[in-house]
Specification:
Layout lengths: L2 E5 L2 E5 L2 H7 L4 E4 L3 E7 L9 E8 L3 E8 L2 E7 L5 E6 L7 E5 L4 H11 L1
Parallel strand pairs: 7-9
Antiparallel strand pairs: 1-2, 2-3, 4-8, 5-6, 6-7, 8-9
């Protein structure tokens, strides 16, 4: 499962080794200044928008990769029936939205706390 954390002035997404293989993305860095909103989404399917681009998914298991839409593209590492942390970004970020399943939604609260420091 991908991990979300802060490193200095960046929000970092660290996919697991198999997610790296499935998505073609290693570590993703977004400047905290480009983060518009961080929130929790209890419904795993709501962050999915647009059409799958370079993706890998196993129905009922995972949706991984890049989804393209009118506002750009999103990075998705979502597992059904798990809570999802959604990061909305603005200019200067490689993705309009990053959605990552987490074991515990405290991840979003921890990221918000780190961002405010």
């Amino acid at each position: 499962m991908a991990r979300l954390l802060t490193d200095g002035d960046d929000l970092v997404v660290r996919p697991s080794w198999w997610e790296k293989l499935a998505t073609g993305h290693r570590e993703i860095r977004v400047p905290l200044s480009a983060v518009a909103r961080i929130g929790e989404e209890p419904s795993w399917w709501r962050p999915l928008r647009g059409e799958p681009g370079r993706t890998s998914y196993v129905p009922g298991m995972s949706h991984l990769g890049v989804w393209r839409h009118g506002d750009g593209q999103d990075f998705v590492a979502v597992r059904p029936w798990r809570p999802v942390v959604v990061v909305e970004t603005r200019g200067g970020a490689p993705f309009a939205r990053i959605a990552v399943s987490v074991r515990d939604t405290r991840v979003a609260r921890d990221l918000l706390t780190d961002r405010r420091r």
